[in-house]
């Protein structure tokens, strides 16, 4: 297995045992119930540390993780509804582009596009913030809400996870396909589409690569499940994979995916980021966030997308 070797010298400073962070990860994946999650945290409540304090430390703090304000003057943002005739009929989401993309001129600049797919909680403020970050990198970004058909993201991650279990997955997948097609044909698009996402969104980015073929230029899944082996040959997008080194299940599964991609002559680059857990990119969850590796992964993603979403002269 050939992987990019990351040079990271920062010492990880865990505020609580890694087991507690792992329990939180299993909880957000729906592997343990809320009751079992809270019960399991009791064994870490020592030396004056309460369960309530641990929960507060583990849960998302979206104000803390905001890097680009919603009213930032450098962007233009709106909520849009995209038709999805082969899915649930429509899907709503957050559309962001640079303010500098002036539509008043006769020939406005056309930009590459990115679909940004959230974790299994719905379109929360962190995912919207990531979409805004892409706009500042001169991309148009659309972050769809998988919970559209059940009322949309409810403002609470736990409740979002409950709703997520009620959606029709095959139809939802077609909703995401519709978003990519909408981005590709948007009047301000250069016709190139990239996909990225986190956890569920990372796995969906891989899936979209198999479904869209040449209509997807690149994908950068963050800690997402690999595409089905039988479908890898359908991929035409350049694949950039991000995993945290401490996310052992996904790390152990990656070599087989890499080998299949290379077997089919698909451009691929894999990063196993040291001292990083599942969710290391999410700065709204400080106990999982690794500032150093998140910044490096973001930089490489922008470089990758810029390379593969150019329009040939």
Task: Provide structural commentary.
There is one protein chain. The protein is built from 9 helices and 8 strands. By secondary structure, it is an alpha/beta fold. The chain folds into 2 domains: 14-59, no CATH class; 72-308, Alpha/Beta hydrolase fold, catalytic domain (Rossmann fold), CATH 3.40.50.1820.
How many individual β-strands?
8
Q: Sketch the topology as an H/E string, one letter per element.
A: HHHEEEHEHHEHEEHEH
As for the CATH topology of the largest domain, it is: Rossmann fold
Q: How many whole angstroms does the radius of gyration measure?
A: 19 Å
- In percent, how helical is the residue content? 25-40%
CATH architecture of the largest domain: 3-Layer(aba) Sandwich
Short synopsis of the structure:
The chain is an alpha/beta fold and 313 residues long. The chain has nine helices and eight strands. Helix 1 runs antiparallel to helix 2.
Task: Supply database-style keywords.
19% strand, eight-stranded mixed sheet, globular, 8 strands, alpha/beta, 313 residues, single chain, Rossmann fold, 2 domains
